[in-house]
């Protein structure tokens, strides 16, 4: 006890007396901090400063306030947005024949192009005063998703003008003159935009683009003006082959000091008509055989006035920050919309197909092997829809959550890949035989496109999610980094001293919370709800504390090396991502009114999220370079072992059984794959067969009972069996008519396209 009291007194003096603390703690720690501080490039600094911290900040700090999550509200559509979906979008869907678009035309039909222009599909994000729709991110996402349920090529064609590009950049940063000139043309479809960022030497490292714009004087429209001489070579540019206006990102240089004393001004964005002298629109690419326009563009010694810089000359060199802040549209709206559409389509068609496809005398949905894969499809779709809703909610709240949108882009496109793989496994021959009735083939082929664009997924996971999240979301690290960069060392020390005290208290709280929650099964963590889901909130809070504690220890031990430990930082990013996805799931359950028939999906999803988050924590501990520190962290995070074991077989079976029937729960995660009159995609066909077969459930039960009793033979094909059942009065004439009609629909649904020649 004496030693304990003595140690406590030393700690109190050491940290409680400022002069002693400054000399013995703050000054040495500050010196050490500056040594281990990871070097940041200019583009990294701009990325850190751009965008906003949103819900991910709560998750990262170890003590999420769940009331904040629930306060964000439920995403809804305005009357105008709903009317557009009910009318223009449905009409567009009736005009889409994706087999014709992809396999024959390699383009959208002219009438669909014109309809998209006339009805404002390219103007979803443009303000109304310029002729646009000014729709919400949620509406934008819903429109793209519904189009994607029938054609990825059509959806991409619509999403690009409403994603990162001239329309969004002009809306946020354009001069009044630029907006008045270009936005009405973009809204009406008179101008078709593309945005050229990626080149042969700069993909995910967009900040390294070699394309240049040199400040110079040259004649333009009869007079000498100050402008830029541009040279560029870009590829993978969607809509480039048909674009009339080109957004261009380039490095701006001023070697002759015509604007000031700074030669390298940085990345800049400009807007250039494609018929301008020197602009070259190159040949088309063939992105996995999809029909949306994608190609190259080059320019050699193209002169433009400075006024063509988006935002005007005052935005010279500010292009990277503009791009980072606007990436939310592509990462948070468009690509997640495509992914969610894949989930809705796969769930709708695969549950239906599993019910109507029979093998060994049973619907294949009754086989546990099929149920295992089908459960993953359904759960991933529930998760995709939840993440889509929460992410667009953030964007509609006018925040620019760069970390959240990176999480959404990476995890949702990967889930889409998993969903399509499982759907292909179950539907097998139905999925691989291309034709007008194949609704899986083209999305399956196109999926890797989403994986690679807007930042390749591997680098998004290993560099962006945790790399930005750890610094942006941490309550003290970014401020400490800014302090370390201050010129006045004494002022920096004074500020660092205050930050350090708070940081130590924060780290100690998270360490204590981690071990206390582990020992008490999170029993005392606060929760905003009662009932079955309350434990999920408590467990998420526990893992949040563990992540915050592990992050502080990792930064302390590895410092700048953590930036290069991509596998470790990716795993910590996975923890943050799983917590975000789990949050989205719980919020959607609340937004849906805590529907009882949603619980099987929530159980499956949350068991998966918690298991994956804990597994990622274990992965960090297993690979942490300092083994002694790893042992201490394990003792605090998992003192009783990792009990987050994931889903059980019962969870999977319960989930599937609830979805192999029509009902509200199934409707809630398939509504982005709508039904409409005249649908020739094969989706309406398999859905009609499913409904008809389900409605004949009791008739089939009568026949099965008769077979078991010996009144009807056990081995007989359907048509003679049904006729014999009627003749032996097992079923009546009305029932016979129903079962024959349902079987006709079943055969049509399981059949595939064939051709006399290809």
Describe this entry's structure for a reader.
There is one protein chain. The protein is of the alpha+beta class. It folds into five domains: 52-68 and 460-657, no CATH class; 79-188, Acyl-CoA dehydrogenase/oxidase, N-terminal domain (Butyryl-Coa Dehydrogenase, subunit A, domain 1); 193-309, Butyryl-CoA Dehydrogenase, subunit A, domain 2, CATH 2.40.110.10; 331-455, Butyryl-CoA Dehydrogenase, subunit A, domain 3, CATH 1.20.140; 682-750, no CATH class. Helices cover 59% and strands 9% of the residues. It has helices spanning 2-16, 18-36, 42-49, 55-60, 66-71, 79-94, 98-105, 110-118, 137-148, 152-159, 166-173, 176-188, 319-326, 328-356, 368-396, 402-427, 429-432, 441-452, 457-473, 477-484, 489-520, 534-558, 566-591, 599-623, 627-637, 649-659, 664-668, 683-695, 697-709, 718-727, 733-750; strands spanning 193-196, 212-220, 223-238, 245-253, 264-273, 279-284, 294-305, 358-359, 362-363. The longest helix has 32 residues, at 489-520. Residues 317-455 form the Acyl-CoA dehydrogenase/oxidase C-terminal domain. Residues 97-190 form the Acyl-CoA dehydrogenase/oxidase N-terminal domain. Its cofactor is FAD.
- Cα-atom Rg, whole angstroms? 29 Å
The total tally of domains equals 5
The N- and C-terminal alpha carbons lie at a distance of: 88 Å
Oligomer: single chain
Shape: flat
Q: Characteristics of this structure?
A:
758 residues; alpha+beta; Butyryl-Coa Dehydrogenase, subunit A, domain 1; Butyryl-CoA Dehydrogenase, subunit A, domain 2; 7-stranded mixed β-sheet; two-stranded antiparallel sheet; 31 helices
């Amino acid at each position: 006890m004496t030693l304990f009291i003595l140690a406590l007194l030393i700690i109190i003096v050491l940290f409680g007396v400022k002069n002693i603390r400054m000399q013995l703690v703050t000054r040495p720690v500050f010196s050490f901090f500056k040594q281990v501080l990871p070097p940041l490039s200019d583009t990294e600094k701009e990325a850190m400063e751009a965008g906003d911290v949103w819900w991910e900040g709560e998750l990262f700090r170890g003590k999420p306030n769940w009331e904040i999550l629930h306060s964000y509200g439920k995403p809804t559509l305005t009357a105008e947005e709903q009317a557009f979906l009910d009318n223009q979008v449905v009409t567009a869907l009736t005009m889409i024949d994706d087999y014709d678009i992809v396999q024959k035309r390699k383009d959208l039909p002219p009438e669909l192009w014109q309809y998209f222009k006339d009805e404002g599909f390219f103007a979803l994000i443009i303000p109304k005063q310029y002729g646009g729709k000014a729709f919400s991110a949620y509406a934008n996402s819903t429109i793209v998703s519904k189009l994607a349920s029938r054609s990825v090529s059509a959806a991409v064609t619509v999403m690009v003008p409403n994603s990162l590009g001239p329309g969004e950049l002009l809306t946020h940063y354009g001069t009044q003159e630029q907006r008045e000139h270009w936005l009405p043309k973009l809204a009406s479809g008179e101008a078709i935009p593309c945005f050229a960022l990626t080149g042969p030497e700069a993909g995910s490292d967009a900040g390294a683009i070699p394309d240049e714009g040199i400040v110079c004087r040259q004649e333009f429209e009869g007079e000498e003006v100050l402008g830029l001489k541009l040279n560029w070579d870009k590829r993978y540019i969607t809509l480039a082959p048909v674009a009339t206006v080109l957004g261009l990102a380039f490095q701006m240089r001023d070697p002759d000091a015509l604007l000031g004393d700074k030669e390298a001004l940085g990345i800049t964005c400009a807007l250039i008509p494609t018929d301008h002298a020197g602009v070259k629109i190159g040949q088309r690419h063939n992105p996995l055989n999809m029909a949306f326009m994608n190609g190259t563009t080059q320019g050699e010694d193209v002169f433009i006035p400075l006024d063509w810089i988006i935002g005007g000359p005052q935005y010279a060199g500010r292009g990277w920050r503009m791009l980072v802040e606007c990436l939310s549209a592509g990462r948070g709206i468009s690509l997640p919309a495509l992914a969610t559409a894949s989930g809705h389509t796969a769930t709708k068609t695969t549950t239906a197909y599993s019910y109507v496809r029979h093998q060994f005398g049973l619907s294949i949905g009754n086989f546990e092997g099929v149920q295992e894969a089908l459960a993953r499809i359904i759960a991933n779709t529930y998760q995709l829809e939840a993440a889509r809703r929460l992410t667009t909610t953030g964007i509609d709240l006018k925040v620019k959550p760069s970390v959240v949108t990176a999480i959404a882009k990476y995890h949702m496109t990967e889930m889409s890949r998993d969903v399509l793989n499982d759907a292909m496994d179950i539907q097998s021959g139905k999925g691989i035989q291309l034709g007008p009735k194949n609704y899986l083939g083209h999305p399956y082929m196109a999926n890797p496109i989403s994986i690679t664009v807007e930042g390749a997924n591997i680098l998004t996971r290993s560099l962006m999610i945790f790399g930005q999240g750890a610094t942006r979301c941490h309550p003290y690290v970014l401020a400490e980094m800014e302090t370390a960069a201050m010129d006045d060392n004494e002022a920096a020390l004074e500020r660092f001293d205050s930050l350090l005290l708070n940081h130590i208290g924060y780290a100690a709280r998270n360490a204590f919370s981690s071990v206390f929650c582990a020992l008490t099964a999170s029993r005392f963590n606060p929760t905003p709800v009662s009932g079955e889901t309350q434990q999920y909130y408590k467990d998420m809070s526990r893992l949040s504390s563990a992540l915050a504690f592990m992050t502080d220890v990792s930064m302390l031990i590895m410092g700048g090396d953590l930036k290069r430990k991509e596998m470790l930082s990716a795993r910590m990013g996975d923890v943050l991502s799983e917590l975000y996805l789990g949050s989205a799931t719980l919020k959607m359950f609340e937004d849906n009114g805590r529907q009882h028939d949603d619980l099987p999906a929530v159980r499956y999803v949350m068991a998966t999220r918690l298991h994956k988050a804990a597994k990622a924590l274990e992965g960090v501990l297993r690979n942490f370079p300092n083994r002694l520190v790893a042992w201490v962290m394990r003792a605090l995070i998992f003192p009783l072992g990792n009990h987050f074991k994931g889903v059980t077989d019962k969870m999977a079976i319960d989930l599937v059984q609830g979805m192999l029937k029509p009902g509200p729960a199934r409707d809630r995660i398939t509504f982005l794959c709508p039904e409409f009159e005249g649908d020739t995609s094969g989706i309406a066909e398999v859905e009609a067969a499913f409904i008809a077969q389900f409605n004949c459930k009791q008739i089939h039960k009568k026949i099965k009972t008769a077979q078991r009793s010996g009144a009807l033979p056990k081995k007989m094909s359907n048509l003679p069996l049904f006729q014999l059942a009627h003749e032996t009065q097992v079923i009546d004439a009305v029932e016979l008519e129903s079962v024959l009609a349902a079987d006709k629909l079943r055969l049509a649904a399981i059949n595939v396209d064939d051709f006399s020649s290809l």
